[in-house]
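WARN no homologs supplied; continuing
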Amino acid sequence: MTASEGDATDVADLTGSLVGFARTLRAAGVAATHDRVHATVAAAGALDVTNRTDVYWAGRLTLCSGPEDIERYDRAFAAYFNGQLAPPMRRVPPVSVVRPVAVPGSEQSGSRQSDEETVPASTASRAEVLRHRDLAALTSAERDEVRRLIEAIDPVGEPRWSRRHRPSHGGALDPRRTVRAMLRQGGEPVRLERRTRRVRPRRLVLVVDVSGSMQPYADPMLRFAHATARRRPGTEVFTVGTRLTRVTREIRDRDPSVALAAVTRAVPDWSGGTRLGELLKAFLDRWGQRGLARGAVVVIASDGWERGDAALLGEQMARLNRLAHRVVWSNPHRGQPGYAPMTAGMLAALPHVDSFVDGHSLAALQGLATVMSGVVGREVAHA
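OK structure emitted
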């Protein structure tokens, strides 16, 4: 194989990993659009795709649209490419680079390979495979890797109009700023000041089922809730089983392991039964009706195995749907082949659910983050 054929093979091998990395970025809140991904692949093809620094900067310069994306990009890159970041780029004047063909046996052929850190293509490929693996079937090592990738998820939150305004070149007339500008000029009209309403992310409320039937999925979902609560102030997290527990304070610790340990101590009903109807009513009576659920995006992570009255669950779901801006239900069994929502709890809840999504894999959690951000339209599921 010639040197040019080897380079083409490397680019082809890395393309799939870059596409998977772009999905991770989108879940982390970076607008990694298709045209930017194409630019990344093209940039990687012009560089050394086996060099971590080249891949890092090829992605950062094409996928990040502003300074606010850099931290998310670094976090996603570290999680996707085996927890390692590229070294800082040296500030050098721009030069034209010609890539020489390596000559076997020469000292230069192995110099760059030894000096620079290479990208573990197998690691990136494994991360892409793990995206679609069922969370209940992971080994201990795979579970640790998935947990790291979950921490890179950053749901943005669906935007809403705020009551506050900001100056703008267009929009409605701002009487106060216009009058103040006139007074500064001695009463002479200078120009009309304009304003527009600010945009704020909606409150996120996550209700996680920790009953026995949800045992393999409760930990990943709580880690997803931790990533959301850490980066989205105002996020509320509750657990349901045989009791309703508010764990918003416990889950906000910076370290996910410490946060999950605190949640474990606070939740008295791990791996018990499920009384969704009664506990949803308790949530609405105590917190939801008073403001937590009003205008919020409410996510319920449960398999819908209701041991109580399914009719009560349907009534409370209808009540929640009237209060919330959008109700999302994440079911880990929905992604299984041949699944149909036949349990009494799911049949009672689905008419009042706006988006019914999978919850069995890392890819499903990343898709859930996209739904929470409002990128995906309302999908009323009655299947």
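The first strand starts at residue 159 and ends at 168.
OK
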